[in-house]
Amino acid sequence: MATAHQRMLEQNDRRLALLCKALSHPARVQILRYVMRHPGCIGNQILLHMPDNGPHAQSTISQHLRVLRDAGLIEAYDDGAAVCHYVNPDNLVWLRTYLEQLV
To answer: Which stretches make up the HTH arsR-type domain (predicted)?
Structure first.
């Protein structure tokens, strides 16, 4: 039977794996960086400012945003005219802290 401490470690490991998986594509890292610098941005703004390292369709950006949202790294707010994106600072702080504990 797992102790409470072991269950907490397993839960943290699953959370870390989810966040790392969300960051496992260079385009998602670039999107996260852009959203950090431009809180409240919309998908079209992200698309227009992606580095020129390959074609990016709006649908591809939307899929990457969904992965980042599902992992909790980005939050979205529908203002009626567009979906605005923001970074979830709590999850970034948690990620940094947990990665530091690994090293």
So the answer is: 8-103
Hunting for tokens 């390959």 — which residue is that? Answer: 54
Look up tokens 């269950």; give the residue: 7
CATH number at residue 14: 1.10.10.10
Number of domains observed in the structure of the chain: 1
Range of the domain at 37: 4-102
- pTM listed for this prediction: 0.86
pLDDT in tens, the chain (103 residues): 779 989 988 999 999 999 999 999 999 999 999 999 999 999 889 988 887 655 568 888 999 999 999 999 999 999 888 999 999 999 999 999 999 988 8
